[in-house]
Design a protein that fits this description.
With 145 residues, the protein is mainly β. The chain folds into 2 domains: 5-53, no CATH class; 64-144. It has 1 helix and 10 strands. Strands 5-10-7 form a 3-stranded antiparallel beta sheet, with helices on one face. It has a 3-stranded antiparallel beta sheet with strand order 6-9-8, with no helix packed on it. Strand 1 (31-33) and strand 2 form a beta hairpin. The longest helix is centred in the first third of the chain and has 10 residues, at 5-14. The protein is elongated, with a radius of gyration of 19 Å.
Length: 145
């Protein structure tokens, strides 16, 4: 089974809860290094019954910053309008990719957008394609390079 390095790292980092830290087990099947230096991803490792083969690449591992908004939605919107809220995501910077996921689906006819609007600030908008009231929801945010 082959995986892209970015997908493995993204999945591993997305699994870490907000405000938590992750210290890899060093000198394991996937990681090698020391607690005072750099950590290297092994080229081939066994994860369960699958062999994970990473491409030969060098570079910087993407950092992922996370957090959540306050409740957004619950008020009537006309087609083509949006309601917004912001969240403080320490480390978020202009140009980063951002993903927002609602904890409750806003409903058919509504969509959401997200972007870094200022240093350490992410804006989430829930927008109406049709007239209606989107279900109020908290949006979980992940910002990464």
């Amino acid at each position: 089974m082959r995986f892209r390095l970015s997908a493995i790292i993204a999945l591993a980092l997305l699994a870490v809860p907000a405000q938590a830290s992750y210290t890899p087990t060093l000198n394991s099947a996937i990681f090698a290094g020391s607690t005072s230096g750099t950590v290297t991803l092994q080229a081939t490792a066994t994860a369960g019954t699958n062999t994970v083969t990473l491409p030969a690449q060098t570079g910087t591992v993407a950092l992922i910053f996370s957090g959540a908004t306050s409740s957004l939605g619950g008020s009537a919107l006309t087609a083509g309008t949006c309601s917004t809220t912001t969240a403080t995501i320490t480390g978020a910077a202009s140009g980063m990719s951002v993903i927002a996921t609602p904890t409750t689906y806003p409903g058919a006819g509504f969509y959401w957008q997200t972007y870094v609007s200022a240093s350490n600030t992410v804006t989430v908008a829930v927008c109406a394609a049709v007239n209606g009231t989107p279900t109020a929801s908290i949006y979980n945010i992940r910002a990464f390079q």
